[in-house]
Amino acid sequence: MEPVVELKHITHVYVSDREASLALDGLDLQVYPGEFVSLVGPSGCGKTTLLSIIAGLMKPTKGEAFVYGRKVDGPTAEVGYMLQQDYLFPWRTIFENASIGLELTGRLDQEHLARTGALLEEMGLSDARNLYPQQLSGGMRQRVALVRTLTTDPGILLLDEPFSALDYQTKLQLEDLIAGTLREKNKTAVLVTHDLSEAAAVSDRVIVLGSRPGKIRKSFDVPEHIRSARPLLAREQTGFNELFHDIWREMESAGDKE
Ligand SMILES: Nc1ncnc2c1ncn2[C@@H]1O[C@H](COP(=O)(O)OP(=O)(O)OP(=O)(O)O)[C@@H](O)[C@H]1O
Known about the structure:
Blueprint: E1 5-15, E2 20-31, E3 36-40, H1 47-55, E4 62-67, E5 70-71, E6 79-83, H2 94-98, H3 100-104, H4 110-122, H5 138-150, E7 156-160, H6 168-184, E8 188-192, H7 196-202, E9 205-210, E10 215-221, H8 224-227, H9 231-234, H10 240-253
Parallel strand pairs: 3-8, 3-9, 6-7, 7-8
Antiparallel strand pairs: 1-2, 1-4, 4-5, 9-10
Bound molecules: adenosine-5'-triphosphate.
Adenosine-5'-triphosphate binds next to strand 2 and helix 1.
């Protein structure tokens, strides 16, 4: 099977007036169709840099990134990006916020608008479509951000700590909803998170990065019976705690105990 995301020997150096810092050092990664992969690792190990390179927002200093076999040389509609902050515009209604990607790409037609409505409904937001972001809870706002990302139908979703600003219960509910929705739609996802339990519960594969410079230390395949369960139930499966502790130990030796 061909990977949908492929990173070949990616090295990235940030250069400022005073210094140069090596953020990623010769990193290789393949992500396969429909896979849900999490990246965990100590603060500063290059997770966000990696996502920015896949998204085409940043060119690596060395190495090449491919998406669907094509070399990445800028952002494309095939890759959606969801962040910790929802960046909803306070002056636009929920529907107008959700459909902004369509507007920007000139696809504000009946078919796409109907899809936006259907996605809002799937996310339990039908009643909120004419409200404004400030009238919504954090969890609802992140659901709007997901709808906004999905309206343009990207095959690949990059998720940079989308749950980390939420309270615990909302976070668990949203993990379930988002992971379930992405699997159902057969999307490929790369999630950056500091929460090891979240990584183990939502992913097919958890990749631990080490820092200074950022490199892959180890990749953990999540056993079939855990990954086929919804995230909330995955945490109750036999072997989940062992997997969590194995990832934790790897993180500890990566120099961080988050
Ligand atoms: N614009 C920049 N200029 C200089 N150095 C940077 C820049 N952005 C990131 N870095 C450095 O590159 C390294 C990797 O940063 P990056 O944000 O990718 O790590 P991260 O793993 O996502 O961190 P965190 O978990 O804290 O979000 C860090 O040492 C960081 O200080």
